[in-house]
Amino acid sequence: MPFADYTIPMGLSTRIFIGLGAGIVTGLFFGESVAQLKIVGDVFIQLLQMTVLPYIVVSLIAGFGRMDIAQTRTLVIRGSAVLALIWLLALLLIFVAALAFPELKSASFFSSPNYPEAATNDFLSRYVPANIFYSLTNNLIPAVVLFSILLGVSLISVKEKDLVISIFDGLSEAIGRINGMIVQLTPIGIFAIAAAAAGTMTVEELGRVQVYLVTYIALSMLVTFWIFPGLVSAVSGIPYREVLDTFKDALVTAFATGNQFVVLPLIAQNCKQLLARHHIPEQESSAAIDVIVPVSFNFPSLGKMLVLLFILFAAWFTDTDIDAQERLALAFNGLFSLFGSINVAVPYMLDMLHVPIDMFQLFMVTGVVVGRFGAMLAALHIIVLSVIGTLAICGKLQLSWSATLRYLGISAAAVLAMVLGLRGYFELFVPAPPAHGAV
Fold first, then answer.
1. Distances (CA, A) of 398 to 74, 234, 236, 247
2. Of 339, 336, 256, 257, nearest to 297 (Cα)?
3. CB distance 210 to 38 below 8 Å
4. Residue 125 half-sphere exposure toward CB, CA atoms < 13 A
């Protein structure tokens, strides 16, 4: 029998990890000579982005159009409740994780008193689509979403809407097929991205902020492999392993590309498949998912919210005291500032807590490392909101006291172990900061 008959085909996730590992090794071995591979990675990311805005438009219009007024009201009320629960859980995790920062007798201060001017944003053009073609051309996602929602809602009362919706459903399926073909190129694209990044990154930058980096990565791993998948399993009755296995391709792709935007179609497809396996009617789940997935991209995700961890780190690093009232204000104001650009939100939050604005430079440097974890967490946030939100809208949540208490117990123990473990590591291996006033 031929040898090929004994081979086991590798899954996409395996091939992506191989491409990622090979790219890192190539970058470390050849250094800056492989920096030009970044062009290949950029081409791959743009191919992925090619289908996303069309997907948002057609899925939102069809998703809202096939609903009735009662379903739309249910979506807003229950979806908002699920989103608020996820935000509350994320804020709690972030502030607890910051307890891992070690005590310092003195800390270095960044001395620049000058704050750069925040970039001026045209919020009207960002959120109000005066010209939808301009919004599409310039990737003004909130404006595109608003237009699509309004058009979809207006279809609810149209008598002949089934014909229009069927056209958009066909377009959605075609876009999904295009995205599926492009996703198969992920191992090649990831190899190029990893090689270029590993060839140009320096270790020196990482050592300066290891407390933040290690805490961020540890929290990301805990959230990805237990907190959020465990939450979905606890409230849905879907086995934990099945939840994690269903979305591993989307999470790995988001991590490797550093872009959760490009996996929105894949997330929607995986959500529908997962719920279909557990006997959720497709006509109910598809309508909700086709609305929640693209809309959720416009709200602060866990990937964005972990910016608050950097703000807490910046205060710790500069020996800036933050009392309970200021922490509460940071949680509230920081969350709403993240509806806009991170590059505007971070200076705003630093200024709010009177942390030297020069820390924003460190934030930009660490983005090279933690950005991929942030993209993975953002994708996970959309997944959790889509699955739990759809189950809530369909009335299919399976709340069990025993499952909930078990989930809370394991989560509390895991978070406590993470904080104590990180605190012990930092106390032993984090060097004392330079004298007051040093940069």
1. 18, 8, 5, 21
2. 339
3. no
4. 11
Cβ within 8 Å of residue 241, ≥6 positions away:
none
For the segment 7-29, the average pLDDT, to the nearest whole number, is 75
Distance CA 39, CA 18 (A): 20
Q: What is the pLDDT of residues 372-382, one digit of tens each?
A: 888 888 888 88
Per-residue tokens: 432:
């004392």
Closest CA to 61 of 192, 165, 204: 165
Are residues 386 and 289 in contact, defined by beta-carbon separation less than 8 angstroms?
Answer: yes
**pLDDT mean across residues, the chain:** 78
∠ CA(433), CA(434), CA(438), 5° rounding?
130
Question: Is-contact 377 136, C-beta < 8 A?
Answer: no
The rounded distance, in Å, linking the Cα atoms of 435 and 54 is: 54
Note the pLDDT tens digit of each residue in 135-155: 777 767 677 778 888 888 888
CB 159 within 8 A of CB 381: no
- What is the DSSP-derived secondary structure letter of residue 433? P
Angstrom distance (rounded) from CA 111 to CA 438? 8
- Residue partners of 110: CB distance under 8 A and separation at least 6: 318, 356, 357, 358, 359, 439
CA-nearest of 307, 363, 372, 364 to 336 is: 307
Question: How far apart (Å, rounded) are the C-alpha atoms in residues 329 and 312?
Answer: 13
What is the identity of the amino acid at 10?
A: M
Residue 371 parent element (H or E): helix 359-394
pLDDT at 115: 43
| The CA-based dihedral angle spanning residues 375, 378, 383, 386, taken in that order and rounded to the nearest 10 degrees | -140
CA–CA separation, 258 and 375 (whole Å): 5
Backbone angles phi, psi at 102, to 5 degrees: -75, 160
According to the 3-state scheme, what is the secondary structure of 16-62? Answer: HHHHHHHHHHHHHHHHHHHHHHHHHHHHHHHHHHCCHHHHHHHHHHH
DSSP 196-207: HHHHH--SHHHH
> Which amino acid, 60?
L
Per-residue tokens: 120:
């001026």
Q: What single-letter DSSP state applies at residue 320?
A: -
**38-49 helix and 161-183 helix, angle to the nearest 10 degrees:** 160
Of 367, 373, 363, 369, nearest in space to 318 by CA: 363
